[in-house]
Each structure stands twice: as structure tokens, then as C-alpha cells.
Amino acid sequence: TPLATFSAIVQITPILVTLGAIVFLSQRVGWRRWGAIGIGLAGVLLIIRPGAGGRSAGALLALGAASAMAMRDLSTRAVPGHIGSAQLAVWGNVIMVLAGGVLMAATEGPVALTLPDVAALGAAIVFASVAYFAITAAMRAGDIAAVVPYRYTRLVFALILSMLFLGERPDALTLLGAAIVVGAGIYALVRESRLHARR
To answer: Does residue 108 lie in a domain region?
Structure first.
């Protein structure tokens, strides 16, 4: 599954998080923000184009990843406030390292790393750590329904990186879907700002 396609499928996470917030955290979501999330999802579907074939296994993995990320976000929101976001991020990364070690041992096993491999992994670790802390802080501080639409922007970054480093060439419908996704996120921000201004 191409990186851009996988990233597009994973963008269903905000829908799952919003539904979970309504059910488990008793958060209220107005129809405008529901609309922004729904439009963002429509943009994702435009990219995926269900029924195109050849994507079933990768799609299932992406859906599993989206479900796990939604549960992580909801769990983060439920953690007591006296536990700092940095501490949560550290423990989250520790658990991911341990789980990754188990998966590595259970699958292909470790391989020798070259200097470029080490450099790439080091950069990935730094960026992932910063991103994980930022996600943790945002999910704890903000309204979930206002925060999650911005995660759609990961799709745009995935498109850019896949073009620059993997040689993937998204078609016109994929680019249109990405534009819709970004537009939905921007609308959600504007709407949330107006709501805060009225309070």
C-alpha cells in the first residue's frame, strides 16, 4: 500500500475519536463541526476510492492502526491532570519501544544497520518524540472535536514526503481529496475560535 494511501485511510481516526468522546467522555459536538469532520472524511474517501482493488490487506492494517490511535487519544484525555504531558509521552514511547522489540523478535528479527540507516532512524525518533508530546498535550488541553480535524493534515505531509522520497505520484483525485481534507480542518479551527469568542 502506498504511503499516501495508507495515511489517507488512517485519517478516519478523528471520526472514531469524536464518536468515542461522545460515548465515553460526554462531550457535545455541534452540527457544524460534525460537518467539517464528515467533509474531511469525504475527502479521504475520494483518495481511497473504495472498490479500486488490491488494497484490502493494507486497508485492514490502516483501519486497525486508526482504531488503536483513537483509543490512545481517548485514554490520554482521561488521564488525571496532575500527570504531566511530558511524562505521558515518555511512557508512551517506552511502551512502543518494548512492543516494537517484541514484534521485531517475532517476525524477521534484527538486521545490521548502515550509517544512513542510523541517521534516518535517529531523525525518525526525534520527530516522532516531538510529535507524540504535541499530540498528547493537544488532546489533554483542547476540545477533542476541535483538535482532531487537524490530524487530517498528516495526509498532506504524507503526500509530499511520498512524492519527494518514494517517487509516488498522486493523481488529480488524490490531490483534490487532500485539498478537501485541509479545508475541513481550517473550517473547524475558524468555528472553534468563534465559539470561544462568544463564551
So the answer is: no
